[in-house]
Amino acid sequence: MPDTPQTWHYGLIAKWWSEFNDDFRPHEVPYFQRYIEHGGQPALDVACGTGRLLLPYLRAGLDVDGCDVSADMIELCREKAASEGLAPTLFVQAMHELDPPRRYKTIFVCGAFGLGSTREQDFEALRRFHESLEPDGTLLLDIEVPYADPKQWRYWLREERGALPEAPKPPRERRRASDGSEYALRSRIVELEPLAQRVTLSMHAEQWRDGLLQAEEDHLLNIGLYFRNELLLMLERAEFPNAIVQGDHNDSEATSDDDFLVFVARK
Ligand SMILES: C[S@@+](CC[C@H](N)C(=O)[O-])C[C@H]1O[C@@H](n2cnc3c(N)ncnc32)[C@H](O)[C@@H]1O
Predict the structure, then answer these.
(1) What 3-state DSSP class applies to 100?
(2) What is the whole-number distance in angstroms between the Cα of residue 95 and the centre of ligand 1?
(3) Which atom of ligand 1 is nearest to the CA of 21?
(4) What is the pLDDT of residues 218-229, one digit of tens each?
(5) How far is the CA of 13 from the centre of ligand 1 (A)?
(6) Which helix (DSSP H) or strand (DSSP E) does residue 193 occupy?
(7) Three-class SS state of 158
(8) How confident is the model at residue 2 (pLDDT cuts 50, 70, 90)?
(9) What percentage of the chain carries pLDDT values higher than 90?
(10) Which mutation among 8, 16, 50, 69 tests ligand 1's pocket best, with the greatest number of atoms within 8 A of CB?
(11) C-alpha span between 185 and 204 (Å, rounded)
């Protein structure tokens, strides 16, 4: 595994996120916001991307900084903030190298833990979250459970894995961006390693204008897959001994039917 996290949030994919992902999983926005509002400032949005969560919080007048490993995502986030007259503190940093300019009451990580990194780096990230919190601060960190996606889950079985890598398929329908160009993406599973609990996905991205292909890119994403109990143990080792696990951003105790889990860990 390279030192720099292997994630695909660059170039055309970053542009796609910025254009089309603001309305993705809207219930996550109020979930984290309540923690920040109730004594949780200042807060840090780790892996803030292009600001899907960060921008609504800034609009609400909350004191939130953001960081992300992708300079492209941070740049687009900065542009979107500036277009609304906002100037948040944003910095480019992998979470396992987190070294923020101040300490926080809340650190939240949404849709990003385990992306592109090794297990050692993920543990180091937890350690740094602990270090970067104020004494009574709270870490909120979510994961999508490995069994959430039936298409991916079947490749945990040896007899199904023979079908990998999946064959490239044509990109999905194009979507028109604010500058008039059109974007299309197509992802596929390349490899799944049950022993290492790791899946590798490949994304093909295209940009079109006036019916002509302007650019195309291919990016890889490695995802470290975690189950509830191992992450609780890792949190304990990182000095978060009393973490609780909630269901899909819903304040209730997690159940087997939840595709997403949120770990709420107090320092
Ligand atoms: C699925 S997006 C989620 C963005 C944002 N948190 C949201 O919910 O809209 C994942 C983000 O994690 C960032 N990322 C991936 N691996 C990372 C790492 N190891 N450290 C910091 N950021 C990372 C990517 O660049 C990308 O912006």
Answers:
(1) coil
(2) 9
(3) 9
(4) 999 999 999 999
(5) 12
(6) strand 182-193
(7) helix
(8) low
(9) 93
(10) 69
(11) 6
For 211, residues 6+ apart whose C-beta sits below 8 A from its C-beta are none
- The per-residue pLDDT for range 20-39, each reduced to its tens digit, is 998 889 999 999 999 999 99
What is the percent of the chain where pLDDT is above 70?
99
The DSSP annotation for 197-246 comes to TEEEEEEEEEEEETTEEEEEEEEEEEEE---HHHHHHHHHHTT-TT-EEE
CA–centroid distance, 127 to ligand 1, in Å, is: 18
Q: What is the crossing angle of helices 11-20 and 71-83, to 10°? A: 30
Assign 171 a pLDDT band (cuts: 50, 70, 90).
confident
Ligand 1 and 5: CB distance under 6 A: yes
Q: Is 90 exceeded by the pLDDT of residue 6?
A: no
Contacts of 224 (CB under 8 A, 6+ apart): 114, 115, 117, 118, 119, 122, 197, 198
Q: Is the CB of 44 under 6 A from ligand 1?
A: no
Q: Does ligand 1 lie within 6 Å of residue 88's CB atom?
A: no
Would the CB of 47 count as within 6 Å of ligand 1? yes
